[in-house]
Amino acid sequence: MHLPIENEFLVMAKKQNECPVPNGTLIIIGGKENKGEDGIENREKPDDFFPLEILKRFVELTHKEEPIVEVITTASSEGEQTFDEYKKLFKELGVNKVGHIHHFSRKEAMGNDLVDRVKKAHGFFISGGDQLKLTSIYGGTPFLTALKERYINDKIVIAGTSAGAMALSTPMIFAGSKEVEELAGEIKITTGLEFMKDVCIDTHFVNRGRFVRMAQVVVTNPTSIGIGIEEDTAIVVREGNEAEVIGSGLIIIIDGLHIAESNIVNISEKKTLTIKNLRVHILGCGEKYSVPQANPPHK
Fold first, then answer.
1. What region, left, alpha or beta, does residue 136 occupy, with left being phi > 0 and alpha being psi -120 to 50 degrees?
2. Are 206 and 240 in contact (CB under 8 A)?
3. Strands ordered across the beta sheet of 25-29
4. Which pLDDT does position 175 carry in this prediction?
5. Is residue 65 part of a domain?
6. What is the CATH number of the domain that holds 160?
7. Angle between helices 79-92 and 53-60 (to 10 degrees)
8. What is the pLDDT of residue 74?
9. Assigned domain for 117 exists
C-alpha cells in the first residue's frame, strides 16, 4: 500500500531534514578561566572553588590517558603567547601532545592540510580575542567542516573561552558596547560557527554588565535562548542541548519565548529598549538546563 504522493513527499522531506544528536561535548567558557591562581579576579571565591577546575574538566572529558589537544588561537592578536600559556597549563595537567592552530587570513585556512590533525585530536580549545576573526576566516572551510563532522560522530570535546565561546553559537554578537546597548537596534549580530543553533552566548557577562545587550538579541528572534556566562564559569553541553554549569560563578539564561511586547522594530529611532514578559533564570555550579528546541535540530 502506497502513501499518497503528498504524504510520501513529507516523509522524505522529514528524513532529509533529520539531524543526528552530537556525540561530542562542548565546554563554553565565560572567559578568564582559572589558570592555577588561588583566587578569582573581581569577586570573592565561593567555598567550592577549585583552581584549574574548568581546564581539568576539559582534559577529563577527552576520556584519554594520553590525549591529543589542538589549541586554536586565530581569534587572538597574540597567538604565540596565548598558545605558550595554554601549552604550559595543559602539560601541567598531563597533556603532552599539544598542537597549535593559527590563521591570519581566510586564504591560509582554505587548504586541506589540517584535516588529518582534526581527525587525530581528542580535544580542541579555542582561545579568546575577536570572535569575528573566527567566523570570517573559518566559515565554510574544510577545517570547520571536518571539525563539525567529528563533533557529530565522535566523542571529542570542543572548548571555547571568551570570543572562542561566543563563536560556537548562532546568533553571535560581534559589536555593541555598554554605551549603546540600551538603544533599540544598536547590537550587531551575525551567524556564528553553529555548534549550537538558536542559542546566543555572551561572556564576561556579569563583570561587564551585558544583560541588556543579550536581551536585544533575544527580542529580535525569540526562538533564540540567550546564555550569559560569568568569568571562570562554563557550561558543559552534551547531546547538543543538555547543559551543566561548572566553575566558580553563575550563568544567566534569557528566554524570550513568552515575550508579549517590545519596541525593537523601531530601529530607525534611537529609543530606549522596552521588552515585556522576558523570562530569566540564574543557575549556579552543578545546575542543569535543557536548552528548548523550538526549531528541533535533533531526532
1. alpha
2. no
3. 97-101, 68-72, 123-126, 157-161, 25-29, 233-238, 242-247, 288-290
4. 62
5. yes
6. 3.40.50.880
7. 70
8. 97
9. yes
Taking the chain (299 residues) in runs of 10, the rounded mean pLDDT of each run is 44 55 97 91 82 96 97 96 98 97 94 89 97 94 95 97 96 65 62 94 89 89 94 97 96 93 72 88 96 67
Grid cell in block for residue 289: 538546563
Residue 237's CB is within 10 A of a number of other CB atoms, namely 24
* pTM of the model as a whole: 0.88
Beta bridge partners of 196: 169
CA distances from 259 to 83, 223, 265, 276 (A): 43, 10, 14, 6
d(CA 134, CA 46): 33
17 in a structural domain: no
Full residue range of the structural domain in which residue 89 is found: 22-290
Count the neighbouring beta carbons within 10 Å of the beta carbon of residue 61: 22
C-alpha cell at 13: 522531506
Residue type, 213: R
Contacts of 236 (CB under 8 A, 6+ apart): 25, 26, 27, 57, 61, 243, 244, 246
Domains identified in the chain, total number: 1
Amino acid at 126: I
Distance CA 239, CA 242 (A): 6
Please, which residues bridge with residue 243 across strands? 237, 289
Left (φ > 0), alpha (ψ -120 to 50) or beta: where does 27 sit? beta
Q: At which residue does the C-alpha cell 591529543 appear?
A: 68
